């Protein structure tokens, strides 16, 4: 199964370009950020950190669309992996947490209970 540890770790600090709203020269509001590794984020920032809804496109081809709080995935979101796998569900502290579904490229679909990124058990 795909996972963030396989190269889908988001840039936390180094924005190369920001096209969007600013407060005291800090990204705040909606905009588009580009990072040194080729990643792109389109969405909301609050005082220089991702906060609210957004779409993070990884240079690897993966993408995450969902909620952020204080620069981390938190709340509902969808992660699409380069291998065709898709996780749709809840996140907490940047990790899958609570219930979510994982669909493999083969079409196999699992509803899973997660705890801080660990697959606890399959619901169906």
Fold and architecture overview:
This protein is mainly β and 124 residues long. The protein has a single domain, classed as Histone H3 K4-specific methyltransferase SET7/9 N-terminal domain (Single Sheet). Helix content is 0%, strand content 61%. It contains no helices and ten strands. Strand 8 and strand 9 form a beta hairpin.
Oligomer: single chain
Number of strands: 10
CATH architecture classification name:
Single Sheet
CATH topology: Histone H3 K4-specific methyltransferase SET7/9 N-terminal domain
Residue share in helix? under 10%
Task: Supply database-style keywords.
124 residues; mainly beta; Histone H3 K4-specific methyltransferase SET7/9 N-terminal domain; 61% strand; elongated
Question: Could you write a compact summary of the structure shown?
Answer:
With 124 residues, the chain is mainly beta.
Provide the fold topology.
Layout: E1 17-23, E2 26-34, E3 40-46, E4 49-57, E5 63-69, E6 72-80, E7 86-92, E8 95-103, E9 109-115, E10 118-122
Antiparallel strand pairs: 1-2, 2-3, 3-4, 4-5, 5-6, 6-7, 7-8, 8-9, 9-10
